[in-house]
Amino acid sequence: QKDLESSFCDANVLVTLGDRGWREYGAQIVLEPFDNNEWRLAVKMSGTTKYSHRAHQFLQPGSVNRFTHAMMWKGGKDWILEFPDRGQWSLFKEMHEECYSRNSRAALVRNIPIPGIRMIEKEHFDGAETEFIRSSSKYYRQTETDVEMALNPSRVLYDMDSDDEQCLLRIRECSEAENSGSCEITEDMFEKAMDMFEKASYVKQRDHFTLVEIQELMAGVGSLEAMQTLYEL
Hints:
By secondary structure, this protein is an alpha+beta fold.
């Protein structure tokens, strides 16, 4: 792995100021620390930083100069980096990615709340125990196992995907053409029915059910004709 902190890449800088513009040759881009544990890409000319860029988002794509075929990357309002050498452009992309990664980690550290502490000197500690006061009488506890929660009929876990939506659309089209009750199937009804079929299949260890079983399983979900249509999918 490259040591990007000690690396640098070469580029030219295209500067625009009002209606004037010019090219500065021989710039070097380096990765260096900035304030508040942040990092930046510094554009140096003769060892002096003239421009800088703090990477807080992914690298924006560059463009190609149609005459020189050099890679161009806009770094600021009035300056653009020009990379005649594609190898230097590749190195710059690695440096930008590293800069963005370090700034992202630094931002996470800054946003982590740090609780305050109060030191208690031993000579001032009398050993008296402080009574514990419960702030709330209500605690949320999971009384069911994961399997029991999954099989609970009041919890609908099935979630329609795009294939299910297409399937339901075809059922409705066929039902409307045949004037049957299957066209009454809604998305909510579809998910509840599939959820019940999956749970019953797990409990009974089989995926074949009689008409009577389907009627008992789907009581209150939808019409028997609609549920039978879903069962036969």
